[in-house]
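Run folding on both entries below.
>entry_1
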Amino acid sequence: MITRRAFALVLASLLATAAPAAETRGPVTNLPMPRYVSLKASEGNARRGPSLSHRIDWVFRHRDTPLRITAEFGHWRRVEDRDGMGGWVHYSLLSGVRTVVVTAAMAEMRLKPAPAAPVMARAEAGVIARLDACEADWCRIVAGGQRGWVEKTALWGVDPDELRD
């Protein structure tokens, strides 16, 4: 008889070697899920469910806040911020404009996507920046009138394997 632990190890091994699953698409928009968007309004209510009759659980208070869409239902999108806070937001409050939030204490914005490139500026943790381009380990952002390359690990709002021109 096989033990539960042995079964779990065999299953984990099989899953690790299996072909990657097909990309998940939203049932309403047919866009990739999860995906990142930004808050279009200066304030947005996140509700417990996908309608105005549901209780407000959270209020986003910063325009351009990057959010991750995790579900869709009609005109509603289930979103979460970098702290995992969120709920259902009406799609009219969201924008396809990509933004990121700086998570590193003082992220160095470099002239080129290389550790030895000159530092053009620094961005404090919590700064919201517009996402421009991304390579394997670096993203070009625009924040406070400055444009530069930041290590991808210093940002929330972009996937580790995401590439953008």
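>entry_2
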Amino acid sequence: MDFLGKALLDHWQGRPAPDLRIHTSLGSVETLSPAYFFRPFEQMPGLEQMALGLAVGPVLDIGCGAGSHSLILQERGLTCTGLDSSPGAIRVASERGLQNTFCKNIWDFKSGKYATLLLLMNGAGLAGSLSQLAGFLEHLASLLAPGGQILLDSSDLIYLYEEDDDGGVWVPADQGYYGEMRYRWEYKGKKGKTFPWLFVDYPTLAASAAQAGLVAEQVAKGPHYDYLARLVRPAYQNPAKNV
């Protein structure tokens, strides 16, 4: 079931839309109001506002949800395309006025050359796992025009673990990379399938970006271990690198 899409449609069409519940692999349950996906620019976090200010068109908004980011850029005169695997989300984004949309998983999307790829609201999570991150970024790079950029945000979850007296952090050895999470949507008492989500610290992101032929820059840090990164595909790459 398209839990996110159902919640967005309920809110958009004026039906009762209770909070989405998100079950995490840490054993906690987080809540998220569908209204959050409809917030105007002035209610967006600073990192999201900054990313929108850096965007140039044409833009591919990956995981566009209700289309709020793309609609702002569209109003500013940029050509924007919203991409989401949720049919309900794409319907809402289209009905709100987003002119170009695709309902497809980003891994299956292979058309177009964009100046900006936008992945906000912890968009790096779409990679799923650390082992897939470099390949994910390579796929994104294939959608960029020469000199194009990827704007994405993520968080370093190291704060979830205790720090010892020497400043080190203990992470269970059997856990793998500490930023790999698993989530499960719940809406109106019904639960969906578990899916992976990746939170990646900036140095690890930068290393994976280099493997994908991208140059990384940490644009800004947020208030709680979050950050905005810009990954650029160089306009010219020395063929000798591949010899």
